[in-house]
Amino acid sequence: MRKMNVAIVGATGAVGTQMIKLLENSSLPLGTVKFLASKRSAGKQLSFKGETKTIEELVPDSFDGINLALFSAGGGISAKFAPEAVKRGAVVVDNTSHFRMDPDVPLVVPEVNAAALRNHQGIIANPNCSTIQMMVALEPIRKAYGLTRVIVSTYQAVSGAGNQAMEELKQQTRDFLAEKPVNEWKADILPCGGDEKHYPLAFNALPQIDVFSDEGYTNEEWKMINETKKIMEDDTIKVSATCVRIPVMSGHSESVYIETEKAVTVAEIQALIADAPGAVLEDDPSQQIYPQALNSVGKKGTFVGRIRKDPDEEKGIHLWVVSDNLLKGAAWNSLQIAETMYEMNLFE
Ligand code: NAP
Ligand code: 3JM
User: Fold this and answer.
1) Could you identify which of 55, 169, 217, 245 might form a hypothetical disulfide with 206, taking C-beta atoms 3.0 to 4.6 angstroms apart as the criterion?
2) Is 57 a domain residue?
């Protein structure tokens, strides 16, 4: 069996830390494993499979001899270093939004469109966390009944914004409990590191994820709209999104409204979800069973419940979709892409 030499770029981050844990239990036959981050972290040590490993500073030559590079250190780092990794013979699975809409880059959720991996030219993009879990829930419905429209509102966890954002929420929560006035809480990152104003997230809900873009939508909302059409290979599906950050540590929740092409019953959708790869049905109102963010943490599945018909729209269905944003939304989907490629014999 061919050994895989793997580099994790952004190894100290919220996503990178989960990637390391998953790689310890991966089915990939591992050769060398390298952990890369910025100069700030170079020299720090961590444990991998019982051995002590040292974080190295990311430089172009980091990729010499590497055949798989998993990137999650921001779009700018991917723009600069992913081509360097490919030049040196690595396959890159990129977690940032930088390459996602590039027509030469497959955008993959393995349960949905693994076949697209065959067309890769060195870089494969991992979709946005909120898109991924929605695709796992909707693809089986689209395949069986057709999909004409999606309207989604998200309730996104703070871990999706990185380690510093999690720390900021924890401190604001401590400040609230210490009865410190809200105007004295520190808010330097959320809703979005790249924007001018910052607001507290503790005991709040912020309808802004990423910066604002065209037509009053944020970039996060455009990611959900555009990525859905690319993954489902259908530009005619009407998609709209409202993305909201809430004070949950991990686990994104989504209220998803869809319209199907053919009429469908709730029981038919429940049966499809129960059978769908990567999806877990949790839907029994009589027993108060429905997906919850807290219960999703540490799990690889996408949990689906609250499935019900729209009272006024014959082909309208509502669903509640929950998944661990750092796992299926990021680290697990990336590693699953790599494992799937290995099984498909796509590493040279
Ligand atoms: P994070 O907790 O802030 O971690 C950022 C990571 O990037 C750290 O390892 C950091 O290393 C590294 N880094 C920053 N600047 C660097 C540089 N100049 N050179 C090398 N490494 C550098 O962020 P995160 O939540 O893990 O997210 C990281 C990225 O993954 C995001 O920016 C985003 O593009 C992507 N992401 C994708 C999804 C998704 O939906 N698929 C979800 C979350 C994040 P140091 O510790 O040395 O600073
Ligand atoms: C999730 O600094 C950056 O470029 C990263 C911003 C970011 C992204 C992104 O756009 O790549 C933070 C958190 C994502 C994402 O998955 O789209």
Assistant:
1) 245
2) yes
Comparing CA positions, the residue from 241, 272, 260 lying closest to residue 316 is: 260
Residues 31 and 149 in one domain: no
190 and 110 share one domain: no
CA atoms within 13 A on the CB side of 145: 22
Q: Which ligand 1 atom is the nearest neighbour of the CA of 11?
A: 9
Domain identity same for 135 and 262? yes
Render pLDDT for 98-126 as a digit per residue (tens, 0 to 9): 999 999 999 999 999 999 999 999 999 99
Q: What is the pLDDT of residue 348?
A: 76
85 is in which domain, residue-wise?
A: 4-126+330-343
Alpha-carbon Rg for the chain in angstroms: 20
Q: CATH code at 10?
A: 3.40.50.720
The one-letter code for the residue type at 227 is E
Q: List the catalytic residues.
A: 129, 252
Give Dmax (Cα) for the chain: 61
| Predicted model pTM | 0.98
83 Cβ neighbours under 8 A, 6+ residues apart: none
Contacts for 48 with CB less than 8 Å, ≥ 6 apart:
20, 23, 24, 33, 35
Residue nearest to ligand 1 atom 11, measured at CA: 37
Residue bearing the CA closest to ligand 2, atom 10: 97
